[in-house]
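# nightly structure sweep
# worker-07 picked up a monomer target from the shared queue
# config: single-sequence mode, recycle default, output format = structure tokens
# input follows
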Amino acid sequence: MVVAWAEDAGGLGVRTADYLIQSLGCREFGEILPEGFFPMGGVNVVDDLARFPDSRLYMCDSSSIVIFKSSIPRMGWHRFLTSLLDVAQRDCGVKEIYTLGAMISSAAHTVPRLLVSIVNKREIKAALKPYNVLADNDYESPPGQKPTLSSYLSWLAGQRGIPAVNLWVPVPYYLAPIDDPRSIKRLVYFFNSKFDLGVDFTALDALIAGQNNRLARLFEKSPEIKNMVRRLEVGDGLDGEESEKLAREIAEALR
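# output follows
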């Protein structure tokens, strides 16, 4: 089961899930109703569009993948995740769980995307390494700090004997508010390789090429912005004002 949360940086998890759903021809088969998990007194409005909390399950007839896309519940985490795990075990026979997430990075967008993992069982680490996943990380929520929803799901899955992996891709900070198709491709490539899904990458490659072309035009117009990216490529940091300018100029070019 692949789990994606809507509030992730750059919408990486949901965009990855959507690509898998479309590529594999998945169909919706269930949902967790919002009552008891989300405030019902109003809705979020983004770009003049009302957005209701949504928690839906998809199955793919051509593969053994189940996908869950959801807004992050505001309350009742234990009951919410228990409901999800009940369906995963009872109705889907899920044997592994993968959550998707983004980490904000100061690296340039030209740097190859890494795939970092946190697992709930040590024996999973060896199985991830053939797929170029960094699996040597051990993480515990700091004392007194609430765990992330993905960490909580991983822990609850472990109580049931279900291996769980939290997958994280470091996303360049200036692409996080917009879109990073390279990070989406890194995640899709992992699932395609591990589960032999036969995913077509044509659409993703077109998105990457389009973004490259727009950025190339920006660099032609602004050698200063191009130089900032080159400094990030070699590990030189930018000061606060430069970082803000780089993010602003790239956002304008890509939007």
